[in-house]
């Protein structure tokens, strides 16, 4: 069941990230407006779009832990941008974009915590299964 739940979260996050990343790459009007407001247009939009697509593909691969780490980093930045500069409601969306960001962030965080031991280089240091202090 744990594996099925993690796969569901991985697929959910990827299903949101792939079209959103694609929209950024093709210069969707909303994406351009958001990144222009942040002063990151066009380079920031393109870089973030590429990273989102890579993260989504990694989530669906054996490198899901790395994908989840990318997801958490990008979504944290996006959430901070919305809370500090862009606002909760953008372009009359009723907060839908922020809700999607939060969904992907929570999904990515859950996958990252569950698969942390699979992270390259640092994964073994995060796996505390041998720690006697844990119940």
Write a structural description.
With 135 residues, the chain is an all-alpha fold. It has one domain. It has six helices and no strands. The chain has helices at residues 2-26, 29-37, 43-59, 64-86, 96-115, 123-126. Helix 1 packs antiparallel against helix 3, helix 3 (43-59) runs antiparallel to helix 4 (64-86) and helix 4 packs antiparallel against helix 5. It is elongated, with a radius of gyration of 16 Å. It starts with a helix and ends in a 9-residue tail after the last helix.
Overall average pLDDT? 90
Distance between the termini: 22 Å
Largest sheet: none
SSE topology string: HHHHHH
- Shape label: elongated
Number of strands: 0
Query: Strand portion, in percent?
Result: under 5%
Fraction of helical residues: over 70%
Radius of gyration: 16 Å
Give the total of domains. 1
Low-confidence blocks of residues: none
Helix tally? 6
Assign the structural class, choosing from mainly alpha, mainly beta, alpha/beta, alpha+beta, or little secondary structure.
mainly alpha
């Amino acid at each position: 069941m744990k594996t099925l739940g993690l796969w569901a979260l991985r697929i959910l996050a990827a299903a949101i990230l792939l079209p959103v990343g694609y929209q950024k790459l093709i210069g969707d009007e909303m994406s351009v407006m958001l990144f222009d407001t942040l002063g990151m247009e066009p380079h920031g939009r393109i870089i973030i779009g590429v990273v989102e697509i890579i993260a989504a593909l990694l989530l669906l691969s054996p490198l899901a832990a790395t994908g989840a780490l990318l997801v958490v980093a990008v979504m944290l930045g996006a959430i901070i941008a919305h809370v500090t500069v862009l606002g909760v409601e953008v372009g009359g969306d009723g907060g839908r974009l922020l809700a999607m960001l939060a969904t992907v962030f929570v999904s990515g965080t859950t996958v990252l915590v569950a698969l942390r031991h699979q992270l390259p280089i640092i994964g073994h240091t995060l796996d505390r299964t041998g720690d006697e202090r844990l119940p």
